[in-house]
Amino acid sequence: MELKQSLSTHLEAEEPLRRYGAVEETAWKTEGLGRNQLDIISMAETTMMPEEIELEMAKIQRLREVLVRRESELRFMMDDIQLCKDIMDLKQELQNLVAIPEKEKTKLQKQREDELIQKIHKLVQKRDFLVDDAEVERLRLPGREESRAPT
Q: Which InterPro entries match (predicted)?
């Protein structure tokens, strides 16, 4: 809007244009332009009507929403993978302790066995909460497909 006013003022008063980006260096050919064509002069590389700009902005907003949903989904997946990895590591350590006959286990090994069981239980609960949160997020955000829900 400021550009159109500045251009109109310049055409009427023949004063030099104010500095606004590259406007001062741009030679505007206004002799053969009708009123509608003057309305669409812009600083953009291509000339776009306001309706076209609004449509493109709406497309960009939808794309942004899709990307935010995907980012959220990927974060849930990363957390899930890390939790599963941690659970598997603890299970492997527990399996090594369980393989030792009960009579040969030290008190420290028995305590470690109990600790591992508790840690695994906490991680499984945490993963369950994560899966529940992912499902709530999937249902909350529009445009999600059933088949893409994290497991």
A: BMERB (IPR040127), bMERB_dom (IPR022735)
